[in-house]
Design goal:
CATH class: Alpha Beta
Strand content: 15-25%
Distance between the termini: 38 Å
Radius of gyration: 16 Å
Largest sheet: 7 strands, mixed
């Protein structure tokens, strides 16, 4: 079973409250979930800290995501709690500041990872903020048991790719039609947010199914 686990929080030092900033008339975090809904999985979870629950709960319900609260800074532990709760054997990891995930690239990556029995998989060469990571649940549970490094716990997956002798990694260059590494589409600053508003407006005439295809997003950036 595959669970898509989206990590998000309300506070942000560089762009306070960005998860609730409007993007095309809806909160940014809702648009992130809208993009991720184009990826077929068995269960979708919005994993957030306790202090974000009241703000996120109605949006998660509307988007068809289960809401799960866990530690704020120890995001690895938050993921592992979600794994235990859902019973998933593979996780697609996504983050709440990426409203332009390439859904078709995420589907392809997860299929490759499952076929190769990879503990960890990601594509290189995608625009920043458009990819996900596919992770074998047991690998994350092992990382939780073994790492004490705060950075590895905050960022979830570094323990896996820092210990290549322990895990089976799949980190290929993305297919050419999804490559555009010079683009940054994550929303981390006010400038990023302004750029996201322009891009979303360009994509808004497309159906939701077409809006989150990598080629269409890249084309809209040009």
């Amino acid at each position: 079973m595959t669970a898509l686990v989206l990590q998000a929080r309300l506070d942000s030092s560089r762009l306070p409250g960005k998860s609730l900033l409007p993007l095309g008339g809806r909160p940014l975090i809702f648009r992130v979930m809208e993009a991720l809904n184009a990826i077929p999985v068995d269960v979708k979870i919005l994993a957030c800290p306790e202090d974000s629950v009241s703000a996120f709960a109605p949006l998660a319900e509307e988007a068809g995501f289960s809401l799960f609260a866990g530690p704020k800074e120890d995001v690895l532990a938050r993921y592992c709690l979600a794994i235990r709760q859902s019973g998933a054997d593979r996780v697609l990891r996504a983050t709440g500041d990426n409203p332009f995930v390439f859904a078709d690239a995420a589907i392809a990556l997860n299929e490759e990872a499952a076929g190769l029995a990879a503990d960890y998989a990601c594509y290189f060469g995608l625009p920043c903020g458009t990819g996900v990571e596919s992770v074998f649940s047991e690998a994350l549970l092992r990382a939780e048991r073994e790492t004490k490094d705060p950075a590895e716990r905050e960022h979830v997956c570094p323990y896996l790719y820092r210990h290549q002798e322990l895990f089976r990694l799949h980190r290929p260059l993305a297919p050419l039609y999804w490559q555009c590494p010079e683009l940054t589409l994550t929303v981390d600053t006010a400038e990023d947010y302004e750029r996201a508003q322009v891009l979303f407006e360009r994509l808004s005439s497309l159906s939701i199914e077409q809006r989150y295809l990598g080629g269409n997003i890249i084309a809209a950036c040009r």
